[in-house]
Each structure stands twice: as structure tokens, then as C-alpha cells.
């Protein structure tokens, strides 16, 4: 690896972590020696890159520092395009449009020599095996409600055809190949539940804050998955694969 590339990668690794990263960890990822890492860190500090720390205790990149716009590697470009392809074909309408816009912005911003990685990528997502089913609520509004930390009132029909009315605290949206799953804390059940968006019969986006912040709810939901072999999800017949 060229030294300039290694300096760039050190910044990338430090940006990726919120904790201090030791020289040994940096050396292992960059396939070099800790001594070389020490020299590279000194070079970056000399170039006014705001790195705090010292040998033995680890290094942290101060918040607010950023690299020049879109200094992307070929692998980073392909990763972004691959993800945008998937979202474009399976996301809700607003996210699908945003994914297409993202690809166009990357293509316009990267140097000419890197544009083949945008328009002719070596990786590609296959088309969905079946048509995405129609959602029973506005997923764009749902995502806004999650960010705002506000409740939703649902009328829902489960797999057996039973209808119920719930007030839920939305946590996240899971995107599967053909369906979307709302993960939420259900006031009726007093637990986390997974609701298929296509089985929602009606939804009212309430101007009522959830008692807990979205980040706290997500952390509790993830811990609950670790405590059970499978989530309690009588409202959904599919577990979100990546949410």
C-alpha cells in the first residue's frame, strides 16, 4: 500500500470508531507495523489532522473533522452503488428515488477515472424474486415518525385474519425482499412486536411523544433479540433480516 493511501486509511479507520484505536489495531488492519503507524500518525498530526492520543493508549479523531468531499476509493464507490441498487428496487418510493439520486450525485462528483465503478460496477443486486406488496401505511411518514419519536395508532390484521387496534412506539423499519416490517413497542402487549406493513388496515400518526428516545428503544429491542431464540412476533410471519 502506498504511503498516501495508508494515511488516508488511518483517517478512515479512526472515523469509523468512536473509541480510541491502538497502533496495534491500526497496524493489523493496514497490514503494516506499529512503528510505521506511529510515524504515519506523527505525519498526520503535522498536517493538522486533529488526532488525539499517544502510543500505548490509542488514537481518536476529533469530531467535526472531515476529508475533502467524496474522496472515495473504488471499493467504497461500489459499496455505495450496490446498496443504492438494492434500495432502488426494494425501498419505499421516497427512499427509492433518493437511492437513484445518490448514484447520480456520486457519478457527478467522482473523478472521470472512477466513473466506471458507478456506471459499470462489478457487483450487482439481483431483481426481487417477487413484486413488493403494497404497504398499508405511508412508509415515508412512518420513518419521519420514528425520527421524531412519536406514537402511531394502528388497526392491524394478523396472519389468521384477526383484527386489533394498537398504539405503538415505532422503533425501526425492516426491508425484506417483498415486504416491509415495522418493529415497535406495543402498549397493548407490553412488549416489542413486528408488524407487516401490508397488513396494516389504518394508521394514525399521533402528535404524542414516546416515553423513551428512539435510540434507547432500538437498544432495548436489540437486547431483547439476544435474550430470545426468536422474537415474539405473532403479528408477523417473517423476522426482519437486517434492520
Automatic annotation (TrEMBL):
Residue ranges spanning the membrane: these are: none
Q: Where is the WYL domain?
A: 141-202
Tell me which Gene3D superfamilies the record gives.
Winged helix-like DNA-binding domain superfamily/Winged helix DNA-binding domain
The organism that produces this protein has a lineage beginning with: Bacteria, Pseudomonadati, Pseudomonadota, Gammaproteobacteria, Lysobacterales
Organism name: Montanilutibacter psychrotolerans
Q: What InterPro entries does this protein map onto?
A: CBASS_pafABC_assoc_protein, HTH_11, WH-like_DNA-bd_sf, WH_DNA-bd_sf, WYL_dom
Pfam families per record:
HTH_11, WYL
Helix-turn-helix type domain residues are 6-59
Which PROSITE patterns does this chain map to?
Answer: WYL
Indicate what this protein is called per its UniProt record.
Answer: YafY family transcriptional regulator
Amino acid at each position: 500500500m502506498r504511503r498516501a493511501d495508508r494515511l488516508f486509511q488511518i483517517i478512515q479507520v479512526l472515523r469509523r470508531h468512536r473509541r480510541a484505536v491502538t497502533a496495534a489495531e491500526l497496524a493489523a488492519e493496514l497490514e503494516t507495523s506499529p512503528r510505521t503507524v506511529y510515524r504515519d500518525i506523527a505525519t498526520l498530526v503535522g498536517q493538522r489532522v486533529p488526532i488525539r492520543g499517544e502510543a500505548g493508549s490509542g488514537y481518536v479523531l476529533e469530531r467535526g473533522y472531515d476529508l475533502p468531499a467524496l474522496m472515495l476509493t473504488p471499493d467504497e464507490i461500489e459499496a455505495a452503488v450496490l446498496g443504492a441498487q438494492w434500495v432502488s428496487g426494494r425501498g419505499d418510493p421516497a427512499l427509492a428515488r433518493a437511492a437513484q439520486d445518490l448514484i447520480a450525485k456520486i457519478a457527478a462528483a467522482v473523478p472521470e477515472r472512477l466513473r466506471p465503478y458507478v456506471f459499470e460496477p462489478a457487483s450487482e443486486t439481483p431483481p426481487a424474486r417477487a413484486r413488493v406488496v403494497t404497504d398499508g401505511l405511508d412508509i415515508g411518514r412512518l420513518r419521519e415518525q420514528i425520527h421524531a419519536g412519536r406514537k402511531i395508532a394502528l388497526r392491524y390484521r394478523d396472519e389468521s385474519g384477526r383484527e386489533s387496534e394498537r398504539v405503538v412506539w415505532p422503533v425501526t423499519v425492516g426491508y425484506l425482499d417483498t415486504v416491509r416490517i415495522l418493529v415497535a413497542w406495543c402498549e397493548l402487549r407490553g412488549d416489542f412486536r413486528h408488524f407487516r406493513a401490508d397488513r396494516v388496515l389504518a394508521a394514525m400518526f399521533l402528535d404524542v411523544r414516546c416515553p423513551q428516545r428512539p435510540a434507547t428503544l432500538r437498544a432495548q429491542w436489540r437486547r431483547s433479540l439476544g435474550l430470545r431464540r426468536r422474537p415474539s412476533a405473532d403479528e408477523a410471519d417473517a423476522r426482519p433480516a437486517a434492520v
